[in-house]
Specification:
The chain is built from twelve helices and no strands. The chain is an all-alpha fold and about 290 residues long. About 10% of the residues have low confidence.
Length: about 290
Amino acid sequence: MEQYSLNELYLKFTAGIIDRAELEGSIYMYFFLNKEKTCLNYWKKEEYEDYISWFYPRMKKAIDTYREIGSSFEAYMNKFLMITSREYRVRKTTKSFIEYSAWGARVPDLYAYEESPGYFNEKKDDVLPDLTVIQNQRRNTRRILALVLKCYYYVSDDFLDKIVSIINIDKDELREMIEKMRKIRQKKDDAIYLMKERIYGQYYRCIVYEKRLSFIQENTAAYDKMKLRLEKARLRLEKMRKRLSKIRTDATNKQVAEVIGIKKGTVDASLYKLKAKLDSMADKSHLN
């Protein structure tokens, strides 16, 4: 392939000898094969090749903004190469910060950490009552079923295997009830999911800002600007967490009644009695 200087290529383009696509391709090959003639000669080969591939889509803008006023096209392109190489380095560093933060952050430290709701008065040394204690009390079957459906958001397949024998119901039938509840609550569940995703993203954004701040010299304009961004990001994250904590993940008693096929008042009474029973069992465990 015959090599031309950048000035010669631009003259061919303005004269109509080559079209834009051929000009851009020729410029790309020129930079790709002539690293030693650019201001990035000190870069490693692999990094330079990655940068040239990243630079290629931005070449159109460089060609469109060139004006023949003083500097040659070759000098202009080299200057554009130098400026965009700095942007590339910044983007690459930022990406490294994000990857480092994502791998370094631990799940227990997530600001969006959630806990399952409690249905009796919990204290520091409380122990959850064993549901097998009330397994033989058949009048509690409906109460436990109502509680399971109310807490559908946290019900897993493993839990279903354990609970079906206690409430004496077919697993497939219980699964159908859970799925019916999820369909009823789908819109609310989707909103909760999206909120959590936004919180996770905001959490990692704070981690990235903290890491970038540690690399900036203190008492500088850049440091103060990044510190302000971090403070605002933390404040926004806290507001998002509070907003999420106010969103209910449990089904309403009316929805539970609809799935089971009974009156809402029956569900209200069943859950109230079950809560009273669990509170009583928890109090007795402390006395022992």
